[in-house]
Amino acid sequence: MVEHVIAAGNQLGESPVWRSDEDALYWVDIPKGLILRHAFATGVGSQWQLPASIGGFVFRHNGGMVVSLKTGIYFFNPDNGDLRQIQNPETDLPDNRFNEGKCDPRGRFFTGTMNEVVRGKPDGSLYRLGLEGDLTTILKQITVPNGMAWSPEGRTMYFADTRRHVIFQFDYDPDDGVPSRQRILVDLSSYDGLPDGATIDTDGCLWSAMFSGGRIVRYTPKGKIDRVIGLPVTQVNSLTFGGSDLRTLFVVTSKHLLNEAGLAAQPLAGDIFTIDAGVAGMIEPKFAG
Predict the structure, then answer these.
(1) pLDDT band at 135, cuts 50/70/90?
(2) Which pick of 9, 118, 121, 152 has the fewest CB atoms within 10 Å?
(3) Is the pTM of this model over 0.90?
């Protein structure tokens, strides 16, 4: 059952993260440069304004966050607003911005870029931020980086190149943080919608948001469709497991690319929904550096 839980009104929601210790959901609104928080125990919302559009973020073991902004990758302390740049790899690509960010099971931060001016142009790259602040290019010629997730044992990595309509699967070495043996898990070129954000459950199945497709799809590790869940909005961006038992899916949506008629037909576009998944998920790892 899909439940409407937060009237967020996101222009372009992304990167939901559940904090069990706070009973709270965090997420970003990309073009507004906002990190947002909703505490379910109190119903109180909070937000932090960043100086540029934000692609994604993760929490740090040492406190604070790692955030990927249009202007680079930073450490951010939400308690005092301190923002310190770590890397800025694409100063020569002013049309690019970051989109999404996740940590692997060992706490390395993966985040990718995309051309936000020419839709679908393969100018993007996927980067890995190491625990010492070193930056490594993992993939190139990406249209829109999305859908990063790792299997429960950490030996398989998933990655969606949204505008190519493909979810990829890789072998993954947790020791060196290098994906290998890239292959197609799912080719969605004949389906409505685009593969966007994703998360993994304890069975090793991948839950994928379908942007412009109005649904969530659960895939087995062999790429077989296991479940399809429709939502009352089309622009479904990302999702994460949360709640006291990690069996609730929190789904972030947006108004992005909807015209006036689309917005009128979808009054809940940009809001946040929950789904009882019937299976437990995984807590998103923190950056270990």
Answers:
(1) very high
(2) 118
(3) yes
